Amino acid sequence: MDIKWLKTFIIAAKYENFRKTAEELFLTQPAITKHIKRLEDDLHIHLFDRVGKTVTLTSAGHHFLPYAKNIIAKYEQGLEDFELWKQGYNRKLVIATAPQIASSILPSILRFFMEKNPHIEVIINVLKSYEIGEEVNAGRADLGLTRIRPIQTNINCNIVHEEPVILVGPNVDLIGDRLDESNVLKKYRLITHNHPDYWDTLLGDIKKHYPNVRTMVVNQMEITKKFIEEGLGISYIPSTMVRDEIRKNQLMEIRPGRIIPPTSSTYVLTKVETKEASTFIEFFKEAIKIL
């Protein structure tokens, strides 16, 4: 029995049409017919009824279909596991993460984690924050890292890190006593809604104290930082997300005044906590303390 025959049978069973099967598999119709005939000969039973150009699954075909799918799934999983073994991996960890985390705290933590755990293959899927809960819930990710609580109630959600949110502006030559909250909110536009959690409450508080503040919505954090660097505005950003830019004097922290900045939380989401997920979570908790 040839794996190619089984793959052809599964697609042919889906369409019950050899022409469509040939198109999907990039084969000729005679090749499709030959695969099916050889599989039927090997099984000593007809899998399709043929009436003119019409083909339909027989009862034997319906009965064999789940077995064929299972054989293909095990075959492909075996190839994947063997490829991982050739690369030195024997375990796998799939992480779904928000862009704000993937571009800030995750890279350095991940580098040290992979150095310490070389046999774990790490796969990173970067998704919007509100999509991560569903990714974990559906079993497509072993754990999720997000800045907001998920709407799903049947998964585990724990805070692994909290950090201050700071007001950030362009690094310009201003006298120290002029570089404060009041002056920058008058001078620059306030870039908002680049974080999924705190902006609605924060913006309401800002407008109470500075009713004439001008705003600009930018829904991507990396773009926000570039806009600030170019002098297009200022924004409230979690401290770890601008740590490197402040160190390099590309951006500047503005001291607070009337506004009490919020905090930003990082949540870890799991449904069934695998050994690999537990290992990563514990490592993450310790590593984030020294960043």
TrEMBL record:
Pfam families: HTH_1, LysR_substrate. One of its GO terms (molecular function) is DNA-binding transcription factor activity. This is HTH-type transcriptional regulator CitR. InterPro entries: LysR_HTH_N, LysR_subst-bd, WH-like_DNA-bd_sf, WH_DNA-bd_sf. Belongs to the LysR transcriptional regulatory family. The keyword Transcription regulation applies. CDD domains: PBP2_LTTR_substrate. Residues 1-58 form the HTH lysR-type domain. It comes from Lederbergia lenta (Bacillus lentus).
